[in-house]
TrEMBL record, chain A:
Name of the encoding gene: REPS1
Signal peptide: none
Ranges annotated as biased composition (Low complexity): 157-168, 548-557
Gene Ontology terms, MF aspect: calcium ion binding
Descriptive protein name: RalBP1-associated Eps domain-containing protein 1 isoform X5
Entry coiled-coil feature ranges: 728-759
Domain EH: 10-113, 285-369
Pfam families reported in the protein's UniProt record: EH
Gene Ontology BP, a term: endocytosis
Region feature Disordered, mapped onto this chain: 105-231, 377-412, 443-465, 479-694
The organism of origin for this protein: Callorhinus ursinus (Northern fur seal)
Lineage, broadest ranks: Eukaryota, Metazoa, Chordata, Craniata, Vertebrata
UniProtKB/TrEMBL annotation, chain B:
Listed GO biological process terms: endoplasmic reticulum to Golgi vesicle-mediated transport
Oxidoreductase in keyword set: no
Main location: cytoplasm
Keywords attached to this entry: Cytoplasm, Endoplasmic reticulum, ER-Golgi transport, Golgi apparatus, Transport
UniProt xrefs under InterPro entries: Longin-like_dom_sf, Sedlin, TRAPPC2L
Subcellular locations according to the entry: Cytoplasm, Perinuclear region; Endoplasmic reticulum; Golgi apparatus
SUPFAM superfamilies: SNARE-like
PANTHER family per the UniProt record, alphabetical: TRAFFICKING PROTEIN PARTICLE COMPLEX SUBUNIT 2 (PTHR12403)
The protein, known as: Trafficking protein particle complex subunit 2-like protein
Family per record: Belongs to the TRAPP small subunits family. Sedlin subfamily.
Gene: TRAPPC2L
Length: 769, 139
């Protein structure tokens, strides 16, 4: 075959047709199938077709290669133009119009037609007026009245033509055909996935809308299906498909259209860049729809009931069936009522339909009412047009309950989110702490016995003297945490009875001193501690000077169990950390009595404390001092006690100093509890005994010694801390009791002293005068 | 899976009937028609108000050597009849039920369309597509 020169339009048209025929993409087309259809669509006599085939060489080759195909097409055009079929005529005939294929549509058209083909609605409701699409100038030029199906160069035509051809065997020519085509998209046989029935719509719509040929129509029309489709429609309406669907009418008009579209195809193609959204509603349209909606339903958020919508849309004079289909498409949630979005979509579809666009099989995305947070619910992609029954079933459900999938989708999200947010149980946090925390703090701070909440307490009770109190308070101040104070307060509480006023007083002081956070220790319990001693005022007790028997008596801490050694009474009394003076005086005697009393172990500590307190004095009143201090001092005193057991104040002072020094060290402060226990024990056991001082001191020392270790370890281990706290508390309790007892003893001792002095007076009358 | 699907109105006239084209459709029509008697039997036998979904599903109405006919009736006495090819892997009862459920849903959607007058032939494309999906499975 000689070379074939094709014009651009021809080239394009032919290539499209070839593509259409080349179903298998093998670059060669068998003689059967679409090629034949195509040729038949050319409305040429069979012999002519055969001749063409022969000429193009397909018969020789047995198939249509691209060149053969092109030649064949050219020959078709030649034949259709009336020229004799000659090989030479291929190139000789100038200005050969594109081969016309009845119902031939360019590929594109066919594609579109495919979507349309499914449209079974061939209602001729649309007047077949299809003003040639803009750019269909050629069509017009080509005098393409609807009747003349001038095959346009639009390549696409060919293919659609072929499928179309078949149905088209029947003489088409009714203007309907074209419209049918337009409807094809909606009909959609799944012969060809329709690129977008939408696009078809627009062209049709536009075509019909105003018979205003020209782009104006297009541009003005809102749902101009993607121009391409338009174009394609023009080019190659899937006439074939369409035709198959609508055998009858499509043909002429379709062909005409195709021709027209072919011509305009290019233009349209250019125009229709936005394939994306043929169904998009323009703003003005939207506004118009909204206004219409308001006329029916003033509330924009409300629904239009089905009956009202029916009446409204019936006015559009569309066939009921189509309206029914529109309803099916637009009623997204299938509730029998139209929301604003649904209404706009329906209106849009009605408009499109009136303009000639075929109804899509599925609601276009752009028309899909926006679901709450769902976007993928609409799997309805753009008009799949297709036809798809294949697609539809799957899609039907979604379209059916579009909202549901979306809801479902959202729900899982919600669920997930809820799961994510997942209930976080408020973790109960023990507030404990205050004690434990405080204790810990104490421990951390003091790191010594004194941290032990009980230690200071122990110290205190052991040291009935103010000094001890002061010491303890000082200790608190030194840094005991609230815990100490707290615990001290606890300890205080724990031994209401045992603790005399002094003790309580001390405790209260110590309690308050140590920590701010610590709940202020209970106010001095005047009475409970006085169970034994009877309501001696601590102050008065402390105020008692050594020389004042009454004071001493008064000062006697209530409920101090009479200790075996009345001589020792003063000791304990001395140890009361009441007043420095008192303490001093008492302390003076205490050392002596210390060894006698089993409590002495503790007392020794307190003695030292007292001494230190005395020395320091400032702490006397500052009973607020944390127990730590006294504890510390207790610890020190413990050691110092050993040293200065029988020491006088000086020793005490030194001891005080020592304790001060030792305050750092925690060792001396044996765990109060232990000494306390021992003390108590010893008290019980050794009450009758007097010489327990060493033991006591030793015990006390041991206690003190153990204490520091406890706090240290406790610091690390909360449980240990708690355990130590408990121990300290116990110790504290014991010490408090001891304190009360000692106070009682002191009182007794003082009484004895008074009696002795009286006797002395009697014995040496006037001697002292 | 269905070879033929029919929707029968209350008055026992078909609202929609569709068969696989390949087969001799008339035979299916006849089968559907005869099965209506069975449906009526079952309905009358029920007695109580047919509110229960299960009662909506009538089950196998009529087995032949080649086909089985299943029935389903709605509360408004609209009947769905489905002819299934026996040669297919025996469809489980649940599958049949689900198919009827889909039919029922589609029918409901058709009913919801204000443009549809009850008693008219069902021409809904969505309904068609749904039925096709059910039938295409056979193919």
């Amino acid at each position: 075959m000689e070379g074939l020169t094709l014009s651009d339009a021809e080239q394009k048209y032919y290539s499209d047709l070839f593509s259409y025929c080349d179903i298998e993409s093998t670059k060669k087309v068998a003689a059967n199938g679409r090629v034949l259809e195509l040729f038949r669509a050319a409305q040429l006599p069979n012999d002519v077709v055969l001749q063409i085939m022969e000429l193009c060489g397909a018969t020789r080759l047995g198939y249509f290669g691209r060149s053969q195909f092109y030649i064949a097409l050219k020959l078709v055009a030649v034949a259709q133009s009336g020229f004799p079929l000659r090989v030479e005529s291929i190139n000789t005939v100038k200005d050969l119009p594109l081969p016309r294929f009845v119902a031939s549509k360019n590929e594109q058209e066919s594609r579109h037609a495919a979507s349309y083909s499914s449209d079974s609605e061939n209602q001729g409701s649309y007047s077949g007026v299809i003003p040639p699409p803009p750019g269909r100038g050629q069509v017009k030029k080509g005098s393409v009245s609807h009747d003349t199906v001038q095959p346009r160069t639009s390549a696409d035509q060919q293919e659609p033509a072929s499928p179309v051809v078949s149905p088209q065997q029947s003489p088409p020519t009714s203007p309907h055909t074209w419209r049918k085509h337009s409807r094809h998209p909606s009909g959609g046989n799944s012969e060809r996935p329709l690129a977008g029935p939408g696009p078809f719509w627009s062209p049709f719509g536009e075509a019909q809308s105003g018979s205003s040929a020209g782009d104006t129509v297009w541009s003005g029309h809102s749902p101009p299906p993607p121009q391409e489709t338009w174009v394609s429609f023009a080019d190659t309406p899937p006439t074939s498909t369409l035709l198959t669907m609508h055998p009858a009418s499509v043909q002429d008009q379709t062909t005409v259209r195709t021709v027209a579209s072919a011509t305009t195809a290019n233009e349209i193609r250019r125009q229709s860049s936005s394939y994306d959204d043929p169904w998009k509603i323009t703003d003005e349209q939207r506004q118009y729809y909204v206004n219409q909606f308001k006329t029916i339903q003033p509330d924009l958020n409300g629904f239009i009931p089905g009956s009202a919508a029916k009446e409204f849309f019936t006015k559009s004079k569309l066939p009921i069936l189509e309206l029914s289909h529109i309803w099916e498409l637009s009623d997204f949630d299938k509730d029998g009522a139209l929301t604003l979005d649904e209404f706009c979509a329906a209106f849009h579809l009605v408009v499109a339909r009136k303009n000639g666009y075929d109804l899509p099989e599925k609601l276009p995305e752009s028309l899909m009412p926006k679901l709450i947070d769902l976007e993928d619910s609409a799997d309805v992609g753009d008009q799949p047009g297709e036809v798809g029954y294949s697609g539809s079933p799957a899609e039907a459900p979604p379209s059916k309950s579009p909202s549901m999938p979306s809801l479902n989708q959202t729900w899982p999200e919600l669920n997930q989110s809820s799961e994510d947010t997942a209930i976080v149980h408020p973790v109960p946090i023990r507030m404990t702490p205050s004690k434990i925390h405080m204790q810990e703090m104490e421990l951390k701070r003091t790191g010594s016995d004194h941290t032990n909440p009980t230690s200071p307490l122990l110290v205190k009770p052991s040291d009935l003297s103010e000094e001890s109190k002061i010491n303890s308070s000082v200790k608190f101040a030194s840094g005991n945490t609230v815990a100490d104070g707290y615990s001290s307060s606890d300890s205080f509480t724990s031994d209401p009875e045992q603790i005399g006023n002094n003790v309580t007083h001390q405790r209260s002081h110590s309690g308050t001193s140590p920590d701010n956070t610590a709940p202020p220790p209970p106010p001095p319990r005047p009475q409970p501690s006085h169970s034994r001693s009877s309501s001696l005022d601590m102050n008065r007790t402390f105020a008692v000077t050594t020389g004042q028997q009454q004071a001493g008596v008064v000062a006697h801490p209530p409920a101090v169990p009479p200790r075996p050694q009345p001589s020792q009474a003063p000791g304990p009394v001395v140890h009361r950390p009441v007043d420095a003076d008192g303490l001093i005086t008492h302390t003076s005697t205490s050392p002596q009595q210390i060894p006698e009393q089993p409590n002495f172990a503790d007392f020794s500590q307190f003695e030292v404390f007292a001494a230190s307190n005395v020395n320091e004095e400032q702490d006397d009143e500052a009973e607020k001092h944390p127990e730590v201090l006294p504890v510390e001092k207790a610890s020190d005193p413990a050691s110092s006690l050993r040293v200065a057991k029988t020491d006088s104040k000086i020793e005490e002072k030194t001891a005080a100093s020592v304790p001060a020094n030792v305050s750092k060290g925690t060792t001396p402060l044996a765990p109060p509890p232990k000494p306390v226990r021992r003390r108590l024990k010893s008290e019980d056991e050794l009450r009758p005994e007097v010489d327990e001082h060493t033991q006591k001191t030793g015990v006390l020392a041991a206690v003190l010694a153990s204490q520091p270790s406890i706090p240290r370890s406790v610091g690390k281990d909360k449980k240990a801390i708690q355990a130590s706290i408990r121990r300290n508390k116990e110790t504290n309790t014991v010490l408090a009791r001891l304190n009360s007892e000692l106070q009682q003893q002191l009182k007794d001792v003082l009484e004895e002293r008074i009696s002795l002095e009286v006797q002395l007076e009697q014995l040496r009358p006037f001697s002292h005068l | 899976m269905a070879v033929c699907v029919a929707v029968i109105a209350k008055e026992n006239y078909p609202l929609y009937i569709r068969s696989i084209p390949t087969e001799n459709e008339l035979k299916f029509h006849y089968m559907v028609h005869t099965s209506l008697d069975v449906v009526d039997e079952k309905i009358s036998a029920m007695g109580k108000a047919l509110v229960d979904q299960r009662e909506l599903y009538l089950g196998l109405l009529y087995p032949t050597e080649d086909y089985k006919v299943y029935g389903y009736v709605t509360n408004s006495k609209v009947k769905f009849v489905m002819v299934v090819d026996s040669s297919n892997t025996a469809l489980r009862d649940n599958e049949i039920r689900s198919m009827f459920r889909k039919l029922h849903n589609s029918y409901t959607d058709v009913m919801c369309n204000p443009f549809y007058n009850p008693g008219d032939r069902i021409q809904s494309r969505a309904f068609d597509s749904m039925v096709t999906s059910m039938m295409i499975q056979v193919c």
